[in-house]
C-alpha cells in the first residue's frame, strides 16, 4: 500500500503521459482502487468514493475507471453477463473467484516464460499478447461441507 501522495504522483504522471488531466474525481477513484483488494464493481467504487465526494455521479466514476484502465493504472476484469470489476493492482498475479458469492481474491503467482511459450506454440495462427488465469471455487465463507463439495 502506498501513501496518498505517492499514489497521486503516480496518477498525475500516468494521466499526463496519456494526455489526460488530473482531476479530484479521478484521484478519489484511483486512491480507493489503490487501497482495496476487493476488486470492486463501478457501483461499489461509486458508493465508497461518494462518502468523500458527495457530488460525484456513477457516470463520472465509470468514466474515471475507464480512463485509469486506459492509462494502465487499473485492470478491468470482465465476466460474461456479470458486471465488470476493477483491479488497482497491475503487477502479475492470478485471481480466484467464488462461484457462490462472486468475490474475487488475489492469488500470488504468474506463469513461467516456458509455460507461456508453449501456450503460444499451441495457439497456432492466433497471436498471444497476454493471458489471464482465474481459479474458481469457494471462498472460506462459502465453502460447503466436505461431503457436498464437487470438484472437477
Ligand atoms: Zn464466497
Ligand atoms: Mn487482483
Q: Helix fraction?
A: 25-40%
Outline, from the CA principal axes?
A: globular
- Secondary-structure element sequence? HHHHEEEEHE
Strands in their spatial order, largest beta sheet = 4-3-5
Hey, roughly how much beta strand do the residues contain?
15-25%
Supply the helix-strand structural class: alpha+beta
Contiguous uncertain segments of 5+ residues: none
Sketch the major β-sheet.
Answer: 3 strands, mixed
The assembly state of the depicted protein chains is single chain
Structural write-up:
The chain is of the alpha+beta class and 152 residues long. The chain has helices spanning 4-17, 24-35, 42-50, 58-70, 113-122, and strands at 75-79, 82-87, 94-98, 104-107, 134-137. The strands form 2 sheets. It has a 3-stranded mixed sheet with strand order 4-3-5, with no helix packed on it. A two-stranded antiparallel sheet has the order 1-2. It is globular, with a radius of gyration of 18 Å. The N and C termini lie far apart (36 Å). The model has no long low-confidence stretch (mean pLDDT 91). The structure holds zinc ion (ZN) and manganese (II) ion. Residues 39, 87, 89, 93, 95, 106 line the site of manganese (II) ion. Manganese (II) ion binds next to loops.
Amino acid at each position: 500500500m502506498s501513501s496518498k501522495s505517492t499514489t497521486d504522483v503516480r496518477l498525475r504522471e500516468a494521466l499526463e503521459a496519456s494526455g489526460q488531466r488530473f482531476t479530484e474525481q479521478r484521484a478519489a477513484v484511483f486512491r480507493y482502487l489503490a487501497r482495496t483488494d476487493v476488486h470492486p464493481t463501478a457501483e461499489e467504487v461509486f458508493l465508497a468514493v461518494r462518502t468523500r465526494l458527495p457530488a460525484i455521479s456513477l457516470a463520472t466514476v465509470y468514466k474515471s475507471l475507464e480512463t485509469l484502465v486506459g492509462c494502465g493504472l487499473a485492470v478491468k476484469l470482465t465476466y460474461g453477463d456479470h458486471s465488470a470489476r476493477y483491479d488497482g493492482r497491475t503487477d502479475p498475479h492470478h485471481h480466484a473467484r467464488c462461484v457462490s458469492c462472486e468475490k474475487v481474491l488475489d492469488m500470488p503467482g504468474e506463469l513461467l516464460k516456458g509455460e507461456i511459450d508453449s501456450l503460444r506454440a499451441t495457439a497456432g495462427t492466433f497471436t498471444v499478447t497476454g493471458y489471464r488465469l482465474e481459479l474458481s471455487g469457494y471462498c472460506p465463507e462459502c465453502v460447503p461441507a466436505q461431503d457436498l463439495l464437487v470438484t472437477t
